[in-house]
Amino acid sequence: MGIDRDPYAWIDDFSIVLRRDAIRRKAGDPAFEFYTGSKITASFWLAIVSCIAGMLGGLLPSHILWSSFIYPAAWLVVVVGVGFAVTLLTIRLAGRSIVFLAGWCIFWGILTGTVAMWGAQLSSAGWAYGIAGGIGFLVGITEGLLEHADLEGHDSLYMTGTILAPTSICLAVWFNRQDLVGFGGFQQAALTGAIAASLFLGPVMALYMAKWKSRSAIFRRASVYLHHDDFVAEGIRLLNIAIRLTPDDAVLFDRRALAHALHGDAASAEADWHQHKVLKKESLAPEISRGWLHLRHGSPELAATAFDKALSGKARPASAIVGRSICALRLDQPQQAIDMLGRLPKGERDARSLTYLAQAHFMLGHWQDAIGVATDAIEELDSPYGLTWLVCAEANLELGNNDQAILGFNRALERDQELGIEERALEGLEKVDGPVFEEDELEDFEKALSSGS
């Protein structure tokens, strides 16, 4: 069908108004994590954490650690204490967005140090370097799976880790076996682990920080906040940060203009739209944003005018097509909505646009078509929208398929992130005297329907 599986496609549909709890939950998505502090400070701190973790890892396979049952217990206590202290210090020094990376460094630092000291203690040089290089390579390729939605050039990061892990571990083993420092016991074990972890994770984390670009994450999170009027001010704050990072980005000015307009600051909105046009003269984005603004303010006629203006040229932005179809639905013109959605390029069709298409068929009384289109959105795209299930359920209700309607209304309740979905789903269940199922009960009910029992 040529449909888009972008999980964040809904963000640019500002006709959607989310519940407050849904806003908080979505804003906490790891894909929206960003960092705007000093990357040098963060990299240096992560290198220190890696070194400490490597020391702890180097102690773990040491014969001395296992000479008394007290030592392993003490080691565990120290690891827990270090983890707790690192978390608090990371928040203070670098911010919460670096906490995960600090934890990542603790885990892989301990593992790297453990492998290094294990290899160093083997009597045979062949086995020592074989273990260090072989398992080190596995450590490198596994640690390299660390990704982020806004990481530029992950392949280079992956290759760097794959090379550095076995190299640093082998170097630590060599350093230990040459006895260059003149001391043994706990100190030598800790030093071996520290060398391996620092030389591996220090450069990898520095490269990760250098390649972590926060602009897109800030933009996405700010856009999420625009889906509820109570959070618009926070969206503006984030967009201010993004514009400071990339002051020549026209897209950011357009989005901040929409935010100002939603917040009731028309003067600031117009100023940002003017700046957007200065940076990108032929852009249609301001008209599209004005269309979303009018939809949010309950004026589909004005929104239709704005979207039509955006569609008047050669370019046919998908967001303008979708926005114009929503206007048609709200103006009780479902056939026009179907015609508009038919103009969407195949690659731009997603679960949300299919949901609007199903809604248009429902309004025309084409119950079976509505069910078919909604089912495509659900089965082919795993639609996350309660509205998709709601349209499907209401169409089944019209056809007298009460059990399917009950299933659909309950599925809509599972996805009731938009305002109004819960009320409509409960109203539908009331019409058929259907129960609200718990998760396990709903699964059993769906299986029973599928089996025909």
At a glance:
With 453 residues, the protein is an all-alpha fold. It contains 21 helices and no strands.
Strand content: under 5%
Envelope shape: elongated
The helicity comes to over 70%
Extract low-pLDDT stretches: none
**Kindly state the mean pLDDT as a whole number?**
92
- Element-by-element helix/strand order: HHHHHHHHHHHHHHHHHHHHH
Radius of gyration: 28 Å
Cα-to-Cα separation, first versus last residue: 32 Å
Structural class: mainly alpha
Q: Count of helices?
A: 21
The largest pleated sheet is described as: none
* Beta strand count: 0
Keywords: Membrane, Transmembrane, Transmembrane helix
Protein name: Tetratricopeptide repeat protein
InterPro entries: TPR-like_helical_dom_sf (IPR011990)
Transmembrane segments: 44-64, 70-91, 98-120, 126-146, 158-177, 189-210
What topology emerges from the helices and strands here?
Layout: H1 20-27, H2 39-59, H3 70-93, H4 99-120, H5 125-143, H6 154-178, H7 185-211, H8 215-225, H9 232-245, H10 250-262, H11 266-279, H12 285-296, H13 300-310, H14 318-330, H15 334-341, H16 351-363, H17 367-381, H18 386-398, H19 402-414, H20 421-431, H21 439-451
Helix pairs in contact: 2-3, 2-4, 2-7, 3-4, 4-5, 4-6, 4-7, 5-6, 6-7, 8-9, 9-10, 10-11, 10-12, 12-13, 12-14, 13-14, 14-15, 14-16, 15-16, 16-17, 16-18, 17-18, 18-19, 18-20, 19-20, 19-21
